[in-house]
Design goal:
There is one protein chain. With 390 residues, the chain is α/β, with parallel strands linked by helices. 42% of the residues lie in helices and 11% in strands. The chain has 14 helices and twelve strands. A seven-stranded parallel β-sheet has the order 2-3-4-5-6-8-10. Strands 11-1-12 form a three-stranded parallel β-sheet, covered by helices on one side. It is globular. The structure holds S-adenosylmethionine.
Length: 390
Amino acid sequence: MAVTPSTHQVFPDIPAKAPEGSTEPGMTLSPKAQALAETLARGIPDRNTLHHILSTQDPDEIEAIRHVAEQTLLKHCGDTVRLRGLIEFSNRCTSDCYYCGIRRSNRAPKRYTLKLDEIVETAKWCGEKGYGSVVLQSGERRDAKFARFISDAVRAIKDETRSTELPQGVGITLCVGEQSTDTYAEWFEAGAHRYLLRMESSSPQLFAMLHPESQSYDSRVQCLRTLKTLGYRVGTGVMIGLPGQTFDNLVDDLLFFRDIGADMIGMGPYIPHAQAVLPGSATIPDAATRLQLALRMIAATRLLLPGINIAATTALQTLAPDGREQGLRFGANVIMPQATPNHVRRQYTLYDGKPCLDDSAGPCASCLEGRVNSVGRRVLRNAWGDSQPG
Ligand code: SAM
C-alpha cells in the first residue's frame, strides 16, 4: 500500500496529532493515520489496502478508517437509516448448516410457521410505523406448498399496505434460502423485489466446512446470479470470525461482493450456538475481536462499494449493546428492527445471546429511533430505501 506522509489535513475536524507530551484534549490523528485517511479518501481501495483496513491494530488508523467510511456513506447515501421490519415467520428448515440453531437436526426449538393473517398483520404494523420495507425470513423449504404460501403472503402484504406515501405497498425482501429459478420468478412476479441470500463465505473450503455435502458452493453462487438476472435487488453477506478464517479470506469476500454485483450487504460476526455442531468454535477470536473485525468489514465494504446499502445487523448488537450504532458509525445505513411476534421469537434463536427476545415490537421501534439519533443519523420513514443502482 502506498501511504505517503502528508503535511496538510484532509479532515479538518480531526486535528493532526499534537506533539509528544501535549495534553491537548480531543481527537487527534498521527501523521501515519492522516496519510492513510488521505489514501482512503482518494479512491477505491486495492487488495493490499483492504487487507490493511482489516488488520491494522493502530487506534489512530482505525479511527481514520471509520471516519473516511462514515464520510463516504454521507456523501453517497446521505444521513438516513433505512428500516426493514424483520418478520421471522417460520423456523422449519430442511437444511443442516452446522453453525445454525434452527438447522434441521436440532431437536431443541419448537417448530412453528405463522399463519398468513398474522404475517400480514405484522407487515401492516411495520407499514403503519413508517418502516417502508419488511424482510420475510425463515428456515429453508423447497416444496410447492411453501412456494405458494410465500406468493400468497407477498400479494396480501402488498394489497394491505398500500398508502398515500407507499402507493405500491411496503418493499418486500425475501430471505428464505436457495430455491429454483421458477420459484424465484414466481415470487418476483408476486411483488417481492429484494432477496437476501448470504454466501456465508466466498471461500469454497470454508463454505464446505460450514455445510453438509448436499449444500454446494456452486449452487449458492448460481442462485445469486439467477436472482440478479430475474431483476431482484440482491443482498448477500458472510459470517466474520469463523474458525480458520483469515484476513485474505475476508478480502476475497469483499471482492466477491463487488464481482457478484450485490446491491446490499448483510454480514455480521459468527456467534456460536450451544446446539450447533460447527467444529473449531473454541478456536475463534474472542467477542471483542470479532466485533471489531465485523466493523472493519463494514467500513471496507463502504469504501469499496460506496453507494451500496449495508446493514448494521442484530449479531453486532449481540456482541455489544451498542453494536448496531457502532455499525452505523463505520458506514452501515440499514437496520432491521425485530418485528417477529413475541410468542415465537424464542424459537428463532440462530445463535446464543440474540437480543430483544422479550421486548415487544412497539418498544423495539421507539428504542431504535433514539439509537439512530444518538449517532447523528435520521430514520428514513415511509420509503423503500433501495440503494441507487451501481
Ligand atoms: N434459511 C435462509 C438462508 O439460509 O438464507 C434464511 C435464514 S438463515 C437462519 C439467516 C442467516 O442467519 C444466515 O444466512 C446466517 O448467516 C445467519 N446465522 C445463522 N447462524 C448463525 C450464527 N451461529 N452466527 C451468526 N450468524 C448466523
